[in-house]
């Protein structure tokens, strides 16, 4: 028996407090088992005060029996005390199999318990098995697009091919790459090389749009076909929707193409979206939105467990959601090294003086956003009257693509009122413009 102050038991992804072992408590136990495990403390009110009375050995055994009978798992129950009052801790380990309560499945998200939707339930039941490795009797080798396969064959021979490549037929190679098992094709095979993969997986298109603002669309393009072909098609559509200029460089006076964004960075972002999207999510597709000042890539599926946004900006291990799809693009030379895609994006953008990309999880998916390179071509009369804070802000925007009021306050060490006044003067001089209505999401870019 341990002395624990219930005030210290803050609710989180792995901690929950309940007054009694009721249906809501059992849902939480199901969620712990399906997520990371956790501890449910029973006998504590919402305000962290304890219910009075002792807890008998029989009462503890009743708790164990109830969990076993309702959920089919055996909990580890401990008795704790604080200032003479007792409460229980029910410790639950992460389960290797999905755990339901009354026929429904739950998971923890932060400090809340939520019922799983159909797509999340599919992921739970796969239990770490890669979607792209699943076999499907609907496919056959006749569904493979021979032209696409021939292109991959040629691409991979010069990159990371198989030593016996020349002596193998297509079916043998598919099997060697684990795209075929005992004569049955995997999801990856049909998605990568199929004649019409949308016949089986209609949600696997890629949508590319050109926007004037968040609600005004100028161009809308839906790209279908297999993933190997989609990569090239989407690249061409993006190039048709961003700007290109020419620079004369070197003594040979050769003309150099300069795009709004480095093309290697665009390809890396696109490959990341294709290779890492959660194909179990059928309600949304990969989306690419091109604005005047940025390009936005979205793929369904948040970061895999164990990977954080901060890790993406540093050298990190690879967690491959679709290992067969990733392996094919690796063999063809499109992926240089697993786990390095975000770093190559950052390097490509930095090499052309672009702001650092932004990575975030959003709407059950993952977003990568590039910001257009900003230049400062200021007429002398516009600089007159600017203080050092305002000049520093212009440099910051050029290097980072944008600035918001909170950032300006922090870098300038001024009040919010002063920050607003400084930024308004830059707007009035035509040096910057405000994006979004006044509020938390407002930021400023060069005009």
Descriptive report:
There is one protein chain. 34% of the residues lie in helices and 22% in strands. It is of the alpha+beta class. Strand 2, helix 1 and strand 3 form a beta-alpha-beta unit. Among the domains are: 115 residues, Methyltransferase, Cobalt-precorrin-4 Transmethylase, Domain 2; 119 residues, Heat Shock Protein 90 (2-Layer Sandwich); 67 residues, Winged helix-like DNA-binding domain superfamily/Winged helix DNA-binding domain (Arc Repressor Mutant, subunit A, Orthogonal Bundle), CATH 1.10.10. It has a six-stranded mixed beta sheet with strand order 12-11-15-16-18-17, covered by helices on one side. The protein has a five-stranded mixed beta sheet with strand order 1-4-5-3-2. The mean pLDDT is 87. It contains 15 helices and 20 strands.
Task: Please write out the topology.
Blueprint: E1 2-3, E2 15-18, H1 23-34, E3 38-42, H2 57-71, E4 76-82, E5 85-92, E6 100-101, E7 104-109, E8 112-115, H3 118-126, H4 146-157, H5 170-176, E9 180-181, E10 184-185, H6 187-193, E11 206-211, E12 217-223, H7 227-241, E13 244-249, E14 254-259, H8 263-276, E15 286-290, E16 294-300, H9 309-312, H10 323-331, H11 341-351, E17 358-362, E18 365-371, H12 380-383, H13 388-400, H14 405-412, H15 416-428, E19 432-435, E20 443-446
Helix pairs in contact: 7-8, 8-11, 14-15
């Amino acid at each position: 028996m341990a002395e624990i102050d219930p005030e210290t038991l803050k609710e989180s992804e792995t901690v929950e407090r309940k007054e009694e072992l009721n249906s809501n408590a059992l849902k939480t136990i199901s969620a712990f088992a399906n997520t990371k495990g956790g501890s449910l403390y029973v006998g504590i009110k919402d305000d962290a005060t304890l219910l009075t009375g002792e807890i008998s050995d029989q009462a503890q055994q009743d708790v164990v029996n109830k969990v076993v009978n309702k959920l089919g798992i055996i909990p580890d129950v401990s008795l704790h005390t604080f200032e003479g009052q007792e409460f229980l801790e029910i410790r639950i380990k992460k389960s290797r199999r999905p755990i339901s309560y009354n026929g429904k499945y739950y998971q923890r998200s932060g400090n809340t318990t939520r019922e799983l939707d159909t797509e999340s339930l599919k992921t739970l039941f796969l239990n770490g098995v890669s979607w792209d490795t699943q076999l499907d009797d609907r496919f056959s080798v006749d569904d493979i697009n021979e032209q696409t396969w021939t292109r991959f064959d040629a691409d991979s021979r010069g990159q990371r091919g198989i030593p016996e490549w020349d002596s193998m037929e297509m079916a043998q190679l598919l099997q060697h790459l684990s795209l075929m098992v005992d004569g049955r094709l995997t999801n990856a095979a049909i998605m990568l090389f199929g004649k019409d993969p949308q016949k089986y997986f209609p949600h696997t298109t890629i949508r590319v749009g050109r926007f004037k603002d968040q609600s005004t669309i100028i161009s809308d393009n839906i790209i279908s076909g297999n993933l190997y072909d989609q990569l090239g098609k989407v690249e061409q559509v993006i190039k048709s929707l961003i700007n290109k200029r020419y620079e004369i460089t070197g003594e040979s006076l050769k003309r150099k193409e300069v795009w709004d964004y480095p093309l290697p960075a665009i390809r890396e972002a696109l490959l990341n979206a294709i290779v890492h999207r959660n194909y179990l999510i059928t309600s949304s597709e990969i989306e690419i939105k091109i604005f005047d000042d940025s390009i936005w890539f979205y793929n369904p599926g948040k970061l895999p467990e164990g990977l954080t946004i901060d890790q993406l900006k540093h050298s990190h291990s690879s967690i491959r959601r679709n290992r067969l799809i990733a392996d094919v693009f690796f063999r063809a030379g499109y992926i240089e090294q697993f786990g390095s895609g975000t770093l190559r994006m950052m390097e490509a953008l930095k090499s052309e003086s672009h702001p650092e990309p932004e990575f975030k999880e959003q709407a059950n998916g993952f977003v990568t956003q590039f910001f257009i390179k900003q230049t400062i071509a200021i007429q002398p009369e516009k600089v007159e009257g600017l203080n050092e804070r305002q000049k520093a802000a212009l440099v910051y925007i050029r290097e980072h693509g944008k600035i918001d009021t909170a950032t300006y306050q922090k870098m300038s060490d001024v009040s919010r009122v002063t920050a607003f006044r400084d930024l308004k003067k830059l707007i009035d001089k035509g040096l910057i413009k405000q994006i979004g209505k006044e509020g938390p999401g407002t930021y400023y870019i060069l005009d």
